[in-house]
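Hi, here's the filled form for the chain we discussed.

Project: internal
Contact: R.S.
Residues: 585
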Amino acid sequence: RSAISMLSDAKRTELLADLVGDARQKLADCLGAYDVNDDVVECFEINQQTTVQKDVEEFCAYVSKICHRKDAAPARSPPRRAAATEQQRRTSSSLAAGMSSAFLTGQSIKSQAPRLATPESKRQRVESPGASPPVIVSPVVPSATRGHSVGNGRSQLLNEHLPSAAGGSAPVHVVNVVEHDYRWMNCTIAERAQAVSRRLEKLERKMVSDVAAQVMVSDPDVVQAQVGQITQASVVLCGRIVCDAEGKLNEHSMILEGSREMSGGKRVRLIVKDCAELTAFSGQVVAVVGRVSSNGQELHAWRVIPGLPAPAPRRLKRETALVGVAAGPYTSSSDLDFALLQSVLQRFATDRVSCGVLLGPFLEADNQLVQSRELRCSGESLTYEEAYRKVFGVIEEFGAQNPGIRIVVVPSPLDIGVMFPVPQPPRCFPDKTLDPEKDSPNVLYASNPAVVMVGSTQLYLTSCDVLSPVIHGLVQRSNSSSNRIETACKMLLHQRTLFPSTPPQPCVEPSQAHLLSFGVDEKEEVPDIFVFASKLTDLAKSVDGRVFVNPGHAVKGHIAFVHVGCVEGKDVASSTRVDVVPFAV
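And the returned structure, exactly as it came back:
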């Protein structure tokens, strides 16, 4: 079998640090006996909504099921299994005849891991000597099918009782966050610090006027103060949570940092043991209610307010439109046949969407052919530019043949040759990839992120995984039943940005970071629907009056349809239907 990355020494030390006695010994034996890596630990904590230290028994059982023993040798398959595999190959060959997708051939399809509600760990396959890999044929699902399973996963549906918006005629146009190329990587340390402080000061002023004022009204004994100010009264402070050292934030490593404008950048240690509920991550701007220690070095908190409250959702007009959303990559990791992209576009046409959104990556940097520098398609060698032209040629041809469908193309930081950090301008692909003179008028190249206006409804789009950075750094203590994914969605609303973590992931250009916030100023509105591509579970969920959609990856066989404006006079959470469903490849 292929070698896999092992558990880092720092992670092993962190796992064993707080354990004693039998629990410590059992965990040490488990880590020594099995091929455990950092991904296994991370996926267990997300799947089980707990930590390894709190449930060593469950973790050891989890590891024994999905990891290989270090002393185990790969077993040889019996002849019957080999015969069955040969039969599968003959069956798949007959099904593949006449179909253009390279995904139906044994050379381009890999074994698919079970799809769960949350991600499982990255596991290497054990190949039996002399045995052929099994061929997995993607399910053929009718266009009207909803609520059926794909592989071992299930469709995600929101408001499935609402009528379809197929054939709707609401106008569609794109508002780019950044319009043109810009210079980057030229910020000084002072300019970077100023960009971070600018966001803190902007949110702090809003929180002082709204959140802190409400706290003082509800409790007259609480007074407003600045970070670093010594007082004997109960106080409410605003600041940014940071970690006291390199590493993952926890309840014992929290520092509250004030802004330069109000507190001169002073810091205090945040003690949160008395907080009944807590939701925190590094980079989060919060309001804290508590008492300052006599030396002014510590703040003993009994309440941490995780940001600005989500504003009341708007009531929408009945402007119906069906928006299809797919997220790349649009080819398997071992080929550059973009037949999957053609399948996605054909599904857009079949379902009569008003707007089709294609989120990158389109030519993924992690593709095996890209990494090997042997870009070949149908036996022909390709450059990066030629591969991109092949992709966008398919999109432009579809746009010319379907003038009633607007296609929105959103780049990704994972695209090879795309040099810009977030925010990414439109058409940021390698030179000579796109020819403006040959553009179809209904193919729109958007920035990343971008806002798509469907009538009066705002869809905020990004090809970045905005949930994972928040979830991985989340420190949560709660009496409610909300899971970590729902909590992460709430944090994006409370922080008024899709990139609130520190350090930001993916890389954000500090000089342009102010373009990524929403709903802070009076004239700014919080978008109605958030669409992003995450490696976590497919998502169609209403949170605090807004709708969050993760279509999953097209290569996994999922696509999303957002039915906008199904009901008149209601908010977006009640008038929008979302179907994240399997589609035929």
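Let me know if anything looks off before we file it.
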